[in-house]
Amino acid sequence: MATANGSAASSSAKASAAKAAAEADSVTIQEQLEILRKDVATLTQTLGEYGKAQKEAAAASARSKAEQLRSDAEAGLHEAEERARRAYAGAEAKVQENPGAALAIAGGVGFLIGLFMSRR
Fold first, then answer.
1. Which of 67, 85, 64, 63 has the alpha carbon at shortest distance from 75?
2. 94 contacts: CB under 8 Å, gap ≥ 6
3. Dihedral of the alpha carbons of 96, 98, 103, 106, in degrees to the nearest 10
4. Number of folded domains in the chain?
5. With 23 labelled, which of 6, 17, 61, 84 sits at a CA distance of 20 to 30 A?
6. Which of the 8 DSSP states describes residue 98?
7. Separation of alpha carbons 72 and 38, rounded Å
8. Domain residues for 33?
């Protein structure tokens, strides 16, 4: 009987020790899960901030490029206007130098346009 009581007490002590170890492991796991939750929250916040910074940088780059394109387009427009003015002034000078030839050329162009329009 003494062995049976000793064996039961030993089993009970082992069970108590196992239960205490399981509770300690459970507490450790809970602590590690809480640390992991905080790390994931921090990582999520950092990624959000990074995304916002990238969006702002891309928007600034797009605005800069759009401004450059607008500036280039305005410069091209001014250049085209100046070329058109020079071409008009040159044509006007040629007409004033030789009005008969200008009238003949205009009549010929009108005749050709009439021919093309009548063939439709």
1. 67
2. 102
3. -80
4. 1
5. 6
6. -
7. 51
8. 2-118
Tokens standing for residue 42: 């921090």
Look up residue 90 and give its two tokens: 């040159």
DSSP, res 20: H
The encoded tokens of residue 48 equal 């959000």
Mean pLDDT by 10 residues, the chain (120 residues): 59 77 85 94 94 94 96 96 96 90 91 88
pLDDT given at position 3: 56
Which tokens is 31 given? 């602590």
Helix axes 2-97, 99-118, angle to 10 degrees: 120
